[in-house]
Amino acid sequence: MRQIYKNGSIYTFNARKPIVQAVVIENGRFIDMGSTEDMILQWGHSATIIDLEGKTVTPGLIDSHLHLSIIADGFTRLDLTGTTSKHDMLDKIQVRASQLQPGQWLLGIGWDENLFTDGTIPTIGELDYVSPANPLMLTRVCQHAAVVNSKALEVSQYHSSISVPEGGIVVLDETTKKPTGLLLESAMNLVKQHIPAHTHETWKDVIRKTMHLALSKGLTSVHTNDPLYMGGLTKTWKVFDELLNDEQIGLRSNLLINHEFLHDLKEAGMYTGYGNHTLQIGAVKLFADGAFGRRTALLSEPYHDDPTNYGEAMYDQEQLYDIVRRARELDMPIAVHTIGDQSVKNILDVLDRFAPVAYRDRIIHTQVLNEELISRLVHPNRIADIQPRFLASDFPWVEERLGKERMKLSYAWKSLMDAGVICAGGSDAPIEPVNPLLGIHAAVTRKKPGETHDGYYQEQKLSMQQAFRLFTELGAYPTNEETIKGTIARGKLADMTVYSTNPFEMEDADELLTTDIIMTIIGGEIKYRIQ
After folding, report:
1. Distance of CA 61 to CAs 5, 185, 218, 485, 527, Å?
2. Which of 52, 112, 295, 392 is within CB 3.0–4.6 Å of 448 for a Cys-Cys bond?
3. What is the DSSP letter of 303?
């Protein structure tokens, strides 16, 4: 089947033909491009012709790091995103609790105490008051902390001498030495393991909704990390396989597999690149540190606002080495959550002891850097997997965490790209919204939507073209797919995103915030069209 998309302003990110009016697609791939007149003349016979009506088109948008399963789980949970006071948070919990049967879990996501105007994190006593009969667990927006009530601790059989998973902290009251209700990092697993799992059909339903959401935001490909949330490798693959290969929803998905499932990968005969262009196994995922919100990101110097605290290493160097060794035994790359500069150094020290494999290792987030670390990231087999939208959520409070001097090479995307580091752009959704235009806006403006200043650390601003490259051309590099997608060129997969306005002719980048996705096209087929 042949399609011609005509009358567009198509930005190919292909230097030989940077802007064209029309593209010709056959069997899911681009076979030609040029003026509308020429393409119709040469290829119009027996072709389906779609009129772009002058709209702007780019290669299909790619999100290099998110969690479809956590977004999907949000369809079943109390959403506290954007809640601006502890009082409102408690009110929402009480309303949800009144709708549940006694003993039924009350689960929620998205709270952020930095937005609160009337206090700090709810205490366990306050949580018990608004949810006395229901075990409760509410995960912070960063996914590195959660609050629970006494009922949840009771169901989880918590006691003062319980063994807390390495890297986790049960925060205790300084006076009573009893839990405050706040759990950090892996300590959340003490409670999570007692929450009833979703059925296969429930996962299919909510992942399907999430994929349609991603398509509506212009995404054609995602790199997603899910097995820890979906019950393991086999269950995760089955859901994605049925949705993508059977139902053909279309969203190309590369699955990052947590290192806990390395044995399962080996037993299943799976490896990086296993699958097809729609669904593939990706890198081995692990966490090297935490996040800034609770000061668990690992720094080489202490936090500016907490001089005794350097953050938390999830593993010591021997353990990191062992995880990478086991991944390398399967010839697989790693994808490592590293926010603080010390965690970046720690994983690079380990990687330097191993030969590269065919696929690239990715260092995810890389939010605090120095000149030495940037130079070590300049490597053909290493990707800096960055999330520009973090800036909109973290500034200005993160400056208090890090101090002015350290900020010069924090969130330093232009320094990375200028140095020659291969970067790819993601959202880490649901940490940030599953909307690549918001990430692009943050990269270009370095400010929150609605702010009127010139941007935080303006020297790190990207151009519109550079920001779009992060979410198109460069997004193909982590999966070694730069020869088949990321730009519009002959022989490449026919993935495109169509916009209501032209981002490359905007006088004010804030126009991105009101730009609609008109169509999302995957393999030449329209998988989303605005209503």
Report:
1. 18, 31, 6, 10, 13
2. 392
3. B
Burial class for 17, CB neighbours closer than 10 Å (0-12, 13-18, 19+)? middle
Q: What is the DSSP string of 449-481?
A: TT--SS-TTGGGPPPHHHHHHHTTTGGGGGGT-
> What confidence tens digit (pLDDT) does each residue in 164-220 have?
998 899 999 999 999 999 999 999 999 999 999 899 999 999 999 999 999 999 999
Tokens of 183: 């759990």
CA distance 469 to 491: 19
Greatest alpha-carbon span in the chain: 81
pTM for this model (two decimals): 0.87
**Six-digit token string for 182:** 């706040």
Name beta bridge partners: 30. Answer: 25
Q: How many helices (H) and strands (E) does the chain have?
A: 19, 24
Strand partners, 184: 145, 169
* Residue 416 in tokens: 């990375």
- DSSP assignments along 186-250, one per residue: GGGHHHHTTSPPPPHHHHHHHHHHHHHHHHHTTEEEEEEE-HHHHTSHHHHHHHHHIIIIIS---
